[in-house]
Amino acid sequence: MEALMPEPQIYVERTLAIIKPDVIDKEEEIEDVILRSGFRILQKRKLQLSPEQCSNFYAEQFGKMFFPNLTAYMSSGPIVAMVLARNCAVSYWKEMLGPSNSLRARITHPHSLRALYGTDELRNGLHGSVSASSAEKEIRFIFPEAILEPLPTGQRARDYLNLYVKPTLLAGLTALCKEKPAEPMIWLADWLIEHNPNKPKLQYHVSQQEHQQ
Question: What is the rounded distance in angstroms from the CA atom of residue 123 to the CA atom of residue 91?
C-alpha cells in the first residue's frame, strides 16, 4: 500500500527589501534578480529618508556604536523600497542577501547579493526584514497606506483557489481557444481583468436621463 503524501501547503509571505543609497544605480539589475527568484513586487517606491526617519526605522539598533553612521548612510541619498511576496519570503530573501557584513559575505557567501553589491559592514547594499513581524512593521513604516490583510494559507488558500481562481482561469482559457487571438497572452490578460470575480459591481444603473437631471 502506497503511503499517502501530505498535500503541499500554500504559504505566501511578504517582506520588505530596500536598495540602499550607494547601489541605487543597480536598481533594474537587482529587480531582475528578484523577479527571476520567484518574488512578486507588490509595491515599490523611491524616496529619501531624513536622519530622524532613519532613526525611527532602525530604532532597535539605537545605542549601538554604528547607529549614527547607519542613520547618516541611509539618509545620504534616495533608496528604493519594495514589498516582496512569495512562499517563505522572509527567509528566502535573507538567504539571497547573505551576511550583513559584505566583506565576510564575499568569503562565506560569494554569490549573495551583499557580496556582489555591498562594500563593507555598514554599506552592505541591501536591506531585508529579519522576521515576519518585523516585515509587517517595516512595510507599514515605508508604505503607511498599505493594507496588510492576512493571506489565506493551507485549506483556506485551496478553497479560495478552487472557488475563484480555477473556474475563472478555465473559462478564460476556453474563451482563448475559441477566439484564437494574434496576441494570446495580452488577450488573456485583458479577459482576466474584465472577468475578475472580485471586480467591484455597481449597485444600480444610472440612466442617461437621470444623469442629465
Answer: 21
Note the pTM of the prediction, 2 decimals: 0.66
**Torsion over CA of 105, 111, 113 and 115, rounded to 10 degrees?**
30
Give the DSSP H/E element, type plus range, for residue 17: strand 13-19
Q: What is the pLDDT of residues 108-129, one digit of tens each?
A: 999 999 999 999 999 999 999 9
- Short-list 31, 13, 16, CA closest to 117: 31
The catalytic residue positions are: 127
Q: What is the DSSP letter of 165?
A: I
Are 42 and 85 in contact by the 8 Å Cβ rule? The answer is yes
Whether 142 contacts 81, CB under 8 Å: yes
State residue 177's pLDDT score.
Answer: 92
* Phi, then psi, of 112 in degrees rounded to 5: -75, 160
CA-derived radius of gyration, the chain: 22
Nearest in space to 19 (alpha carbons), one of 84, 68, 85? 84
How many Å apart are CA 114 and CA 106, to the nearest integer? Answer: 8
| 12 closest CA partner among 94, 95, 81, 84 | 84
| Alpha-carbon torsion angle 149, 155, 161, 164, nearest 10 | -70
Q: Are 123 and 77 within 8 A, CB to CB?
A: no
Task: Tell me the pairing of strands 126-128 and 13-19.
Answer: antiparallel
